[in-house]
Write a structure and sequence with these properties.
homodimer; alpha/beta; Rossmann fold; 2 domains; 3-stranded antiparallel β-sheet; 10 strands; DNA-binding
DNA sequence: TAGATTGTTAATCGATTAACAATC
DNA sequence: TAGATTGTTAATCGATTAACAATC
């Protein structure tokens, strides 16, 4: 019977635009909770987040509706509900591959463990790094990866290798049962259906900033020319 | 006369969706150039990038149209044109504030200089770091920031401090003539019109990956339940 | 009760895709 | 010339915003 299910019809699939807003909602609600807010209206949250109240109600309603007409949203309830949807409460096992500048920085970053991302092991091709520890995890040789994954179920692999070596990691990761790749290498990785990839592309992010700055500057120059 | 110009009407302003694709176009065209491609069709580029040929023609046409009917796009010309639009050819002076794990990693990252981002100085509140060097730049005390900016025109400030201290940096940066902030602290920074902010939010990116993995898993469970 | 604010549908807006004439 | 492929307009699709009845 499975063949009649339309793979593109993903019922209830959340749009990319909304997926991007969800962690921001979570972060902001956690902040409000810590500030002692019990309840917040879509209007006030919209003001703080730079969104429209209409969009916020639309989004929250898609989560199942944790508001009360005339009152607003219960901050703690809503934050927990979004946490459940984001799957933040389950523990995710992480490994990092490529222990250069970025790999080391991510290994030592304390924030992940707050959201139940648990760093289990590090891998690198450089034998001089093997055995060292960063952020509480040990560096293993990259050729031990397949064997490691056999013994240690792993949810997410963080790829911090040079671009050239990144793609060839995907196949053994998928074979080893890894379900997600958080990719910092400067390539768009091709992956099988069994594994999800989130390409970070830090350089792209910096280029976008430079572009927006340039665009703004050109606009302001045009404006001053007109008003002369 | 300037008051009659509608600030929201930004003529020729590029949409966010397209801004996000531009660095990917640049990266891919550079790759094709290095592989020896002289020309590429929208159809072939679409296949490689996972986009539609129609969207690619639409986007490239907005840049001014570097294609030839019947032939395709000149890879080098197009790459250079996108580079100009992204303002990659002009040198951008960078400083990094907050020399923790991420600040150090970014300081030592070699890739930025390839795209004419030039690291000039580092700042930190920890006096033990002052005078040390990372990625060829020296660490200065944070209370010397305003004076530094007076003497050294700076395009972009990279904020890698803890979330709590990040917002209070914005005012002195704006006052010092900085035009863009690349923010790695886990807050959405509020900034005046004179300065553009690009919030990176790495934890959000990891949360989005976990969410998508969870969503996919739930979908697959539903499917196997239906086909039983 | 009156005021506030959600839930939800309809209207609008914007981005993507389809189509095809122009032309290499 | 015939085939390929762009440039560009129109059609479609999806996301955001507006509106307002429901209800706290």
């Amino acid at each position: 019977m499975s063949e009649i299910i339309d793979r593109n019809n993903n019922p209830g699939r959340v749009s990319d635009a909304m997926t991007r807003r969800m962690p921001a909602y979570y972060r902001r609600l956690l902040e409000l909770e810590n500030l002692g807010f019990l309840v917040i209206s879509s209007k006030e949250l919209a003001r703080r987040m730079g969104l429209t109240d209409s969009q916020i109600r639309h989004d929250f309603n898609a989560f199942g509706g944790f508001g009360r007409r005339g009152r607003g949203y219960n901050v703690e309830l809503l934050r927990k509900a979004i946490g459940d949807i984001l799957d933040i409460n389950r523990e995710h096992n992480l490994i990092i591959i490529g222990i250069g500048n970025m790999g080391k920085a991510l290994a030592q970053y304390k924030g992940f463990s707050e959201h139940s991302f648990k760093l289990m092991a590090l891998f690198d091709a450089n034998s001089e790094l093997v055995g060292k520890r960063f952020g509480g995890a040990r560096v293993y040789a990259i050729n031990g990866l397949a064997k490691y994954l056999q013994k240690n179920p792993t949810d997410i692999a963080v790829i911090c290798t040079p671009a050239a070596g990144a793609q060839e990691l995907v196949e053994p990761l998928a074979a080893g049962g890894v379900k997600g790749i958080w990719n910092f290498a400067a390539v768009d990785l091709q992956a099988p259906d069994s594994i999800l990839v989130n390409n970070v592309h830090l350089t792209d992010s910096l280029m976008m900033l430079a572009f927006r700055m340039h665009e703004k500057q050109v606009l302001e120059e045009d404006k001053s020319w007109i008003s002369e």
